[in-house]
Design goal:
The chain is an alpha/beta fold. Helices cover about 20% and strands about 25% of the residues. It contains six helices and 14 strands. The protein has helices at about 35-45, 60-65, 65-75, 95-100, 180-190, 210-215; strands at about 1-10, 15-20, 25-30, 50-55, 75-80, 115, 120-125, 130-135, 145, 155-160, 165, 165-170, 195-200, 205. The strands form three sheets. The chain has a six-stranded mixed β-sheet with strand order 1-2-3-4-5-6, with helices on one face. Strands 7-8-9-10-13-14 form a six-stranded mixed β-sheet. Strands 11-12 form a two-stranded antiparallel sheet. The longest helix has 12 residues, at about 180-190. The two termini are about 30 Å apart.
């Protein structure tokens, strides 16, 4: 399995490429702000051919470059229907102040081919099987993508802004809800094996076991307002 990535743009949102091996087809996860150049370099380095772009949620820091990447490679974008409108109007997912700061003269459009994700769906792409989990709370349409491991490699979860090393995604933007994100963590993260590798939308990788033992949000039993990371 080949997984490589980089933090994109001023938001430092992690963009990943995933493939069975170098020289094969791949999927791209969350191409954010100014991701095109670094992404092209990564694809050339590993001789990869993209077949799809997967979007963990519709916030601008994760989908800024979705349309140009899909257009240049003639591949579809996959996103949950609850966040699909953010592809063409990402300001809906931001505060008024942030919209005014970011979108002076900028316009966004959907890629030509947009496909909608469903909870529990298994995507068979690039010779891999990725399980989709709907994990609302950061946004209404947030999802994670899970890859099964092997005897030598543990399971992998691309967590978007659901779960970070030591923290969780913020819930104070439109579509966010703290009790809902706690339910998503409880239902979709806590049942996973401890050695599951978590590749988050921001910051370093971690494991479910490490977060189970140290992340205060995973230990919360009662919902309350709390801070988080990510746009």
């Amino acid at each position: 399995m080949l997984i490589a990535g980089f933090p994109a743009g001023s938001f430092q949102a992690n963009c990943y490429v995933v493939a069975p091996a170098a020289g094969e087809e791949c999927v791209i996860v969350d191409p954010g702000q100014n991701a095109v150049g670094d992404l092209d370099d990564l694809l050339r380095e590993h001789r990869l051919k993209p077949v799809a772009v997967l979007v963990t949620h519709g916030h601008i820091d994760h989908m800024w470059s979705v349309a140009p990447v899909c257009g240049a490679r003639d591949v579809p974008a996959w996103i949950h229907p609850e966040d699909r409108d953010l592809l063409s109007d990402p300001g809906k997912g931001l505060s008024l102040t942030t919209r005014q700061q970011l979108f002076g003269g900028l316009t966004f459009t959907e890629p030509d081919d947009v496909r909608e994700l469903a909870d529990g769906e298994v995507l068979r792409l690039a010779g891999m099987e990725l399980t989709v989990d709907h994990t609302p709370g950061h946004t209404r349409g947030s999802v994670t993508f899970r890859l099964p491991g092997t005897d030598e490699i543990p399971d992998v979860m691309f967590s978007g802004d659901l779960l970070f090393a030591g923290s969780i995604g913020r819930t104070d933007l439109p579509g966010g809800d703290y009790p809902t994100i706690l339910r998503s963590l409880a239902v979709k993260c806590l049942p996973l094996p401890d050695d599951t590798v978590v590749l988050p939308g921001h910051g370093p990788q971690t494991t479910i076991g490490r977060e189970r033992a140290t992340n205060p949000y995973l230990a919360e039993a009662a919902p309350h307002a709390g801070p988080g990371r990510g746009l």
